[in-house]
Amino acid sequence: MILTGPEITTAARDGRLRIAPFEPGQVNPNSYNVRLGPTLLTYTEEVIDAHRPNPTREFEIGEGGFVLQPGQLYLGHTVEEVGSDTFVPLLFGRSSVGRLGLFVEITAPIGDLGFHGQWTLMLSPTRPLRVYRGMKIGQIMFFLSVGPVDLYSGKYQAALGPQPSGYWRDRPGTEAAAR
Hints:
hydrolase; dCTP_deaminase; globular; dUTPase-like_sf; dUTPase_trimeric
């Protein structure tokens, strides 16, 4: 079952889900709009290596916006910290943003029960596109989980700002892989 807008509002007020800051005007019929935070990351190496940490470059989105370039992956983040120990969140790009040629979160929309933090957004433009901090970029839907719950306690917990891939930590023999 998916939460309706009024139930999202009720759950945010009673603590079953956390959206901070919560703005009633961002509630939709069955989702909550999230906004683009001020920081973007890009990888600096021509080849990204899944088995090691990869260096990144940080950009701040100024008052005049920031132009995303095609062929470049940008890691952004939500302004809002979102999470729940009760509902499974799924984040998708807004259709209005997709119609501008920006792919948002096409490979990893699902959040884990127990994750609480800002969401890292994978942003891929099809053509040059100026984006602005604070623009409504995505929407999160919340689904009821059924069965025993094992809350998330992984490498991205309590994230603030965009997080580069920590995939290298999942390799056998690493501390995180043992968890």
